[in-house]
Amino acid sequence: MRTSSTVKTRRRGADLERAIIEVAWAELLDRGYAGLTMEAVAAGALTSRSVLARRWDGKAALALAAIRHQLAKHPLAVPDRGNLRTELLEYLDRVSDLAAIIGAIFSLLSNGAFSETYASPQELRQALNGDRTDSLALILRRAADRHEIDPAKLSPPIETLLNDLIRHHILMNRSAPPKDLRAAWVDAIFLPLVRTG
């Protein structure tokens, strides 16, 4: 005889989609893109493969949805603090919180089957970010407006330097860089390159 504690309630709509995406994310972290299967996600979310197939046209789309969901939970936008150094350190803290997500993205890029869907990192970036604001560029624009930095010194390799450093560290070490290293990037490398005067 079933008791009220053994009766399962069926999830629908947004609740079901959220459960599927959370399971897909856990599978991506656990097994990487190569080990991600629609069957395992369906089983973990207590639903059927056909339910997944109605929402996502394959494993690549589901993986992207899971990553997008995680990115939405960790916004990179830093409020105007009135000080470039403070804002850069806060930005790097926020990017560091995304180390697992960045690792999952690199896992996608290194998978041959996935790269048939998204041939370049730029295509993947567009699929993940859409029209999201470039938070680092916004921080630098505000600093230029406050005359803390010389905008003429923000040539393309310099403007993206902090993003390049943190992505490289996460890729090579599979972890976020320590706080003191992030501070050294800002104080010893980046700020001397862009300051006015």
UniProtKB/TrEMBL annotation:
The membrane-spanning stretches of this chain are: none
Provide the residue ranges listed under DNA-binding region in this record: 37-56
* PROSITE patterns for this protein: HTH_TETR_2
Q: Which GO terms describe its molecular function?
A: DNA-binding transcription factor activity; transcription cis-regulatory region binding
For this protein, the record's InterPro entries field holds: Homeodomain-like_sf (IPR009057), HTH-type_TetR-like_transc_reg (IPR050109), HTH_TetR (IPR001647), Tet_transcr_reg_TetR-rel_C_sf (IPR036271), TetR_C (IPR011075)
**Highest taxon above the source species:** Bacteria
Q: Which residues form a coiled coil?
A: none
Pfam families recorded for this chain?
TetR_C_11 (PF16859), TetR_N (PF00440)
Listed A to Z, the keywords are:
DNA-binding, Transcription, Transcription regulation
In what residue span(s) does the HTH tetR-type domain sit?
A: 14-74
Per its record, how is this protein called by name?
Answer: Transcriptional regulator, TetR family
Q: Which organism is the protein's source?
A: Pollutimonas bauzanensis
